[in-house]
């Protein structure tokens, strides 16, 4: 799904203004002095009632600017949440499914936008698959040969009902392109084994290896995607946490320098063996 952007990586939009209370206070004081220079004798006194009045006004302006920021974010796909995101989806005919979280809905909205270019695109099939069942974590359409499309499903939980439901949705009238045979299958996990020696720093915590196990599990869960290559160097970055002085691997295949996956595979954490190699 190359058309899907990681919206969390987008920079803050220019329409969202950085908020600075002290800067607002300074601007208000400067404006007051331009209108009433005689106030200069009291504006540096924190106990002066006029100063308190200016600060109160500045705080109310800060709240107003924050509300403007929130309203601007609500109209942007990368930042909209809850009901605001539902309204953005409605613009493209995409409704939130029962129990669907914001990130999944955001992906389906992007798929819908990309699919508007024409029926039969990869994004079109992925959108139909993810809309057919909330059990579909992701979907990817490939063309093994002309006239045939195979849709790979990455499921939250393996069952037989979900592929059947997706196949029925994709092959329904008005969804499948004429003259195209569409089949549906499920993706398979590709375990990545890790066998590494860990050298500690002097200030390493006693439960360092347990923390590294958790980092690996979290990292794989967040990075996993259909067909995504797993590089040994990426695994090394996960293992180089606080308290780790050095990392090396036992053998050349745990993990290999590069684990290349097919489009119907997704990476999972396999057997993990971390050896405490002592202090360095």
From TrEMBL:
Domain of life assignment: Bacteria
Organism: Acidovorax temperans
Entry protein name: Baseplate J protein
């Amino acid at each position: 799904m190359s058309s899907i952007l990681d919206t969390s990586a987008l920079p803050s939009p220019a329409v969202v203004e950085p908020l600075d209370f002290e800067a607002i206070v300074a601007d208000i004081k400067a404006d007051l002095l331009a209108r009433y220079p005689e106030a200069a004798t009291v504006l540096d006194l924190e106990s002066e009632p006029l100063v308190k009045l200016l600060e109160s006004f500045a705080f109310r302006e800060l709240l107003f600017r924050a509300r403007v920021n929130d309203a601007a974010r609500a109209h942007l796909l990368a930042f909209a949440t809850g009901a605001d995101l539902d309204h953005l989806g409605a613009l493209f005919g995409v409704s939130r499914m029962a129990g669907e979280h914001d990130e999944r809905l955001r992906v389906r909205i992007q798929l819908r936008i990309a699919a508007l270019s024409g029926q039969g695109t990869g994004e079109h099939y992925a959108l139909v698959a993810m809309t057919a069942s909330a059990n579909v974590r992701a979907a990817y359409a490939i063309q093994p040969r002309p006239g045939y499309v195979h849709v790979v499903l990455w499921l939250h939980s393996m069952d037989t009902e979900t592929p059947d439901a997706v196949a029925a949705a994709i092959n329904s009238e008005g969804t499948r392109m004429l003259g195209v045979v569409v089949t549906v299958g499920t993706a398979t996990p590709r375990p990545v084994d890790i066998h590494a020696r860990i050298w500690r720093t002097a200030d390493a915590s006693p439960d360092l290896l347990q923390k590294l196990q958790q980092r690996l599990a979290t990292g794989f869960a967040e990075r996993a995607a259909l067909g995504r290559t797993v590089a040994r160097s990426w695994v090394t970055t996960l293992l180089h946490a606080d308290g780790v002085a050095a990392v090396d691997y036992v053998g050349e295949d745990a993990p290999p320098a590069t684990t290349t996956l097919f489009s119907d595979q997704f990476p999972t954490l396999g057997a993990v063996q971390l050896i405490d190699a002592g202090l360095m």
